[in-house]
Amino acid sequence: MDVVEELNKKQKKRTLQKRNNRISFSASLPDDVCGVFAGSVCAVKYSTNPFLDMRESILEMIQYVGVCDWKDVEELVYCYIALNSSEIHESIRDAFLSLGSSRMS
């Protein structure tokens, strides 16, 4: 194998690895959301760090909508779980828990 072929092979491998590291956020709000988030707009985002991106997104939603009580938090959790693939549910859980623990300390 010559040098050019070897470089092309390495580049293809890197490109595939980059694609595999991206995770998609969904963009259609569930029909049964009827609380404070009912009029919210969903955005699609590709992420290499779902935990940090979810945490940032959750904070933005809390601040923008003005989450006041536990019912609003439950609806927000539901929206994130319903909108995203099971691959990142753990990141969603961890992001919510990290926000809860940082607000309690």
Question: Could you characterize what this model shows?
Answer:
The chain is mainly α. It is built from 4 helices and 2 strands. It has a two-stranded antiparallel ribbon. The mean pLDDT is 77.
List the helices and strands and how they pair.
Elements: H1 3-20, E1 23-24, E2 46-47, H2 50-66, H3 70-83, H4 89-104
Antiparallel strand pairs: 1-2
Helix pairs in contact: 2-4
DSSP summary: helix tally: 4
Q: Report the strand count.
A: 2
* Proportion in β-strands: under 5%
Oligomer: single chain
Secondary structure category: mainly alpha
Arrangement of strands in the largest sheet: 1-2
Helix percentage range = 55-70%
Helix-strand string:
HEEHHH
Distance between the termini: 59 Å
Mean pLDDT: 77
Shape: elongated
Q: Low-confidence runs (pLDDT<50, min 5 residues)?
A: none
**Biggest sheet architecture:** 2 strands, antiparallel
Instruction: Give the C-alpha Rg.
Output: 18 Å
Q: Quick gist of this model?
A:
The protein has four helices and two strands.
Features:
105 residues, 2 strands, elongated, 4 helices, mainly alpha, single chain, 62% helix
